[in-house]
Amino acid sequence: MRVLIISLEAPLDDGRVASGNAVRTRQLRRALEGAGHDTTQAWLAPRGQRADGAFHTRDQLAGIIRSERPDVLLVGWWELLSLLPYELDAPVVLDFIAPRPLESLFETPGRVAAEMGRLRLALRRVDLVLVGTAGQAGLLHYPLIEAGFDLRQANPVCVVPMAGDICPGQPPEPGTAPLTLVAGGVDWPWRDAGDYLDAIEAAVAGSDGRLALVRLGDQGPDGRAGLLSHGDYEALLSGQAHIGVELGHANIERRHSLSFRAIDFLRHGLPLLCSDHLPIARWVEAYDAGWVVSDPADIAAILERLRRDPEAWRRCRDNALRLATERFEPDTAAAPLLRWMASPRPAPRLAVHGVAEADPPVIGVPPLRERLARRYRLARRVLLARMLGRKPCGDAIVMVTRSDLFPTDHGAAVKIVETARGLASHDREVALVTDDRKHWLRVSEDGHFEKVRYPWWLKLFARPLPWVKLDHYTRDIPESNAFLYLPMTDGSWFWRVLHVAGRTGAGVLQAEFPAYALPCRQAADVLGAATVLVEHNVEYARLRDQVPELSDDQFRRLRAIEIDLCNRADAVICVSDNDRQRLAEDGVHPGLLHTVPHGINLVAFDSAVAAPARSQFGIPDHALLMAYHGTFAYPPNRDALQMFADEILPRLQAEGIDAHVLAIGHSPPSGLHPKIHCTGSVETVPPWLKAADMAVVPLRDGGGTRMKIVDCFAAGLPVISTAKGIEGIPVVDGREAMVRDEWDTLCAAVANVAADPALAERLRSGGRALAESLDWSEIARRYLAIQSTLR
User: Which stretches are transmembrane (predicted)?
Assistant: First the structure.
């Protein structure tokens, strides 16, 4: 089996301080490899840090998963689950060794409820959960049921305690050197060992040098030894220490915790001096592998006996090694996981429908006023259906959207038009309803758009357009984006959607952007059709990023509207897992959410001939030509051009590189820089991209998926981008694209690609291979697969 381990930290390095997570990951990795499995580790790296297996974003992790093609994913920290792609073939194992919600009770009690909600959402992605103790397993049963696990069929929780290789130490014999106790580590709010350690310190002070205490931890005035590298820590346990200390006051976290330090002490042959409330205490007592105390006052007597009778220490040392060997040796501890790995499988889930009650409920009778309202709605539905002479609901699809679709010189237009063509190519009747009050659009099987006039009488159901706009644009909506919310106040959308859906016999009404879901839902209720909402971005999040004047009240209102419309749809299609995760966390039911990325028309790119950009703009043949395309009315794209002028071109010029920018798209700003050349609106983008040497994407803001990146891949351009600029695209840095977030490193990447033809060709090949998996025909097939489940 190929196992991809996804961890919070880099692989353990003996020359550096090691966390419990890193120790645990090494333990599991060695156990899996010892059982014959192939393992690879990917880890969440700090920004700017690069190494094999390092990732910084969800998209980079998706690229690693796509490259490795693992049979099983082992996730080492629960919050990393939110970074996983939603569409996974491999089962997912979560290592939940630390009782994190209990830790949060002590760190951030006000956030516990929200964190439990996130945990339940994360557990929906998991097939097996590893815990350290039976008590931890019990804590998970209710959250697992809430996350949809059917615990009647199987228990998806395995107890796999901390473990490690047996390394008997050789400390100096007691009597020839002080009997040395080791305690400490990082201080946490849930670990309060002060009184116990004070008692040990008092015993040491009165021992005439025959006792010693080494306190590991952060440097401070209390004489601690500090946090040692893992190698030095192991050497201390092997060559100097006699007794391990795991003491503290009881609380709910401590009663469920099994620390890696306690296991480290035992496997080095250090008897354990521990508190009686710890899960390890029962094993220490059963094996006589140390001393269990319930009060700091017990410590002095224990240490005095040991000082006088070293043989008691030797007996407990041998028992500590026996306990570690029989209970906490890696293969023994990992046995439940290794048994599951023999046949990894998805966990059984509960059906989404409710369970029938023993006594079926009877139909209630609502109050008279509500009953009359229901009769009115039913009569209205029947009357409207007869007025329209509608066809029965069939396979036709009505897309409801904005009207600025031609020319297709911005991302939303390309996505909507190509989705419509892709759906039509699969033998579906496809129609588009837009702001145009005179015509709707019919899409032919070969991808042509035909205008069809509405009947004259539809005007009777619409307020005059100037009146509608005066009403709408004076509402509390950001003016720059108010057009996207017009269906919220213009009732004529409902009538136009109803007419076109009835005429075509549509079974699916597909809203492009949230507000268009309102007339879709209203018409679907009349027609019995399904409603699909396509989220090009998480709109309220995009507006928060791009509209400085957006107030908190406006943001909350727009978020509530969008979440409500999502939950009223029958399915919500996101363009990236980033957006899908955000919507799920903010309240959209996870079962409604799907991910379908942007696509690409490869034929259009393959047949395109490079535009004469160099001759048109007077760009020398030897100069480096960087492409950037998008609609420059969109603030993040304008900001990206400003970054070319302020940051990128000056740096390249300082390195002696004659570089120019080809800015492709309508509404460009003027006069930014003499080497930024703006095409304005173009009929088609591919010829202009093919005129460039590479694509550079210095985006700092924006949402959704970067369609421009896929266009550049299809055009055969090497791509250098910020992480924000390539968000939503599952790339591996250095294979499909170079991802750099600092201007100096981004410019260095541009220079390297320009000077290294082999590197440029590798990026071209990797990007093109990714683009070929995103052909619009395949994207449309994924839409149809989702729609087929709704009826």
Answer: none
Residue 407: is the preceding peptide bond cis (ω within 30°)? Answer: yes
Q: What are phi and psi of 578, to 5 degrees?
A: -60, -50
Put residue 441 in one of left, alpha, beta given phi > 0 → left and psi -120 to 50 → alpha: beta
Alpha-carbon span 21 to 34, nearest angstrom: 20
Stated pTM of the model: 0.75
For position 411, what pLDDT does the model report? 79
* pLDDT the model gives residue 104: 87
Question: In terms of Cα–Cα distance, which of 490, 538, 492 is closest to 514?
Answer: 538
| Contact status, residue 718 vs residue 695, Cβ threshold 8 Å | yes
The answer to whether residues 575 and 779 touch, using CB atoms and an 8 Å cutoff, is no
Rounded to an integer, what distance in angstroms lies between the CA atom of residue 190 and that of residue 167? 30
* pLDDT tens digits, 598-656: 888 898 899 999 999 999 999 999 999 999 998 898 888 999 999 999 999 999 999 99
CA terminus-to-terminus distance, the chain: 39
Q: What is the pLDDT of residues 517-543, one digit of tens each?
A: 999 999 998 888 999 999 999 999 999
Domains defined for the chain, CATH in brackets? 2-159 (3.40.50.2000), 179-328 (3.40.50.2000), 378-595 (3.40.50.2000), 602-777 (3.40.50.2000)
* Kind of pairing between the strands at 290-293 and 396-400: unpaired
When pLDDT is cut at 50, 70 and 90, the band that residue 392 belongs to is: low
Q: What angle do CA 612, 614, 620 make, to 5 degrees?
A: 155
Q: What is the DSSP letter of 621?
A: T
CA dist 6 and 53 (Å) reads 9
